[in-house]
Amino acid sequence: MSIEPPHEDDSAVRSAPYTLEQTLSGVVMGLIVLISFGNVLARYFTSQSFAATEEFSIALLIVLSFVGSSAAFAFDRHIRVSFFADKLPPAGRAALEWLSFAVTASLFAFIAFHAGVLTWDQYRFEETSPALGVPQWWYTVWMPVLAVALVLRLILTRVRGRA
């Protein structure tokens, strides 16, 4: 198993300095840091924390997970154990890559469907969040949207032949 990405020259692949996934990851990480740091300061100076910060942080961590996964797949830097795949002939490795693509795309399509059902149920039954009392679907609507975006990114990456 190597730690080097298979495509060393990413500059030929990228036309812009940062992709949408990379930009969103940075923005979301920055928001999480600001929210967490603000909560730490509030606790330090007032001995009380902001109850709503956990809701926002969890929602942003979910967004970050999907966006980060998309970036990892886009640049072929996702985690893999290639011990057995490296022992296969090139045709076997190619078949294994297609199997990996199919399983991953199916998993995220499954997540998109069921997260969509969850979001719809939360909307329909007017569930509210515990701390702020805002509609719960405001937080979960991003799961199906980003899961579908991730499946599209996987397909695009597979069609371009980079994964």
Automatic annotation (TrEMBL):
GO terms for molecular function: transmembrane transporter activity. Keywords: Cell inner membrane, Cell membrane, Membrane, Transmembrane, Transmembrane helix, Transport. Belongs to the TRAP transporter small permease family. The lineage of its organism: Bacteria, Pseudomonadati, Pseudomonadota, Betaproteobacteria, Rhodocyclales. The chain crosses the membrane at residues 24-44, 56-75, 96-117, 137-156. Part of the tripartite ATP-independent periplasmic (TRAP) transport system. The keyword Magnesium does not apply. It is found in: Cell inner membrane. One of its GO terms (cellular component) is plasma membrane. The keyword Transmembrane applies. Residues 32-160 form the Tripartite ATP-independent periplasmic transporters DctQ component domain. The complex comprises the extracytoplasmic solute receptor protein and the two transmembrane proteins. It comes from the Bacteria. This is TRAP transporter small permease protein. GO terms for biological process: C4-dicarboxylate transport. It is a multi-pass membrane protein.
